[in-house]
Amino acid sequence: DDDEHLSDIDGATVHVGNRGDYLDPACEGSIDSSLHTDYKLTIICNNLSGRFLTVDWYFTNHPDRERKSLTLCEVEIFAHDSKGDCPGGNVKCADGLCKPPSFC
Length: 104
What we know:
Blueprint: E1 13-17, E2 52-58, E3 67-70, E4 91-92, E5 98-99
Antiparallel strand pairs: 1-2, 2-3, 4-5
């Protein structure tokens, strides 16, 4: 919850798929905490789909080069569909993102 520890997640990759691990397809690039706005990050996943979102990274400075995964709770994931269609009963909101109607 504070800026002091935001950089702990730098370099992590975001994966979306049905396995729920780092072997799911990765979104573009890696996380850079300096780009957050009010503790929100935008991650480009180019139409990846699946049941799980996994954040994965190595501690490159750790002597064991451990792989770590981040468990997220109460996460809001919104999709932007370049075709203009919103799946799953979602609607396109004024910000161009597909969300449940009550979130617009």
